[in-house]
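Table S2 (text version). Query chain:
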Amino acid sequence: MSNYLLELPPELLAEAQKLATDNQMPFSQWVIAAISAKIEAEKTRQLFSIYAQKADDAKFDDILARVPDVPPIEGDELLP
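Corresponding structure-token output:
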């Protein structure tokens, strides 16, 4: 494992320490988990971007045109 000096604003550090405590984990482990989650989120964003570039809008419209125009099943309604 490597070391890295990280300077954080006091408010951000306090909030991160509180979250680590709330999650009953050492601060260093919480920071590693937070960075890992951010990396995975960015990888997912990049993957969706690639998928979006490959999307065929005409084919999508074709598929949607085949969906029947009926009211949603009870409980599946959109919230206002």
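Notes on Table S2: Helices lie at 10-22, 27-54, 57-65. The chain is about 60% helix and 0% strand.
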